Amino acid sequence: MQEVIPITTQYDADKCRQWIQDNVDIDFFHAVSDPARSQLLVLLASTGEQTIGEIAAAFPQNRSVISRHLDYLNRFGAVSRRKVGREVLYKANTEAIVAKFEQTTDHMKAVIHKL
C-alpha cells in the first residue's frame, strides 16, 4: 500500500494557496454561493428577465436588500441588467456561470492529474 503524505510544510501550503488565488475566482464563487443570491439566480434562471419589483415580490427581504444582491451578482457577471424605459430588467447569465464552474473544474482536473 502506498503511503499518503499530507501537505504539511509551509512551502506546500503557500504553493496551494497561490494556485487557488491564480486559478479560482474566489470572489465569483463567494457571490453565487450566498443563500439569498443563489435563490435569486435560481429564480432568474427559471423565469427569465424580471424587474426589481417582480423579483422582490418573490422574496421576504426588503427591495433594497434584493437590489444590493443583484448589484453584487452583476459585478461578477452572474446576472446582467438592461434598462428599458424607466425599468431595469435583470437576468441570470447562466452560460457565464456554467463556464466559470467548468473552467474551475478543468483547472482542478489538471492539478489532480499532475499528482
Automatic annotation (TrEMBL):
InterPro entries: ArsR-like_HTH, HTH_ArsR_DNA-bd_dom, HTH_MetalResp_TranReg, WH-like_DNA-bd_sf, WH_DNA-bd_sf
Species this chain originates from: Levilactobacillus brevis ATCC 14869 = DSM 20054
Keywords carried by this UniProt record: DNA-binding, Transcription, Transcription regulation
A molecular function GO annotation: DNA-binding transcription factor activity
Domain HTH arsR-type: 17-112
Signal peptide feature range: none
SMART domains for this protein: HTH_ARSR
PROSITE patterns: HTH_ARSR_2
Protein's UniProt name: Transcriptional repressor SmtB family protein
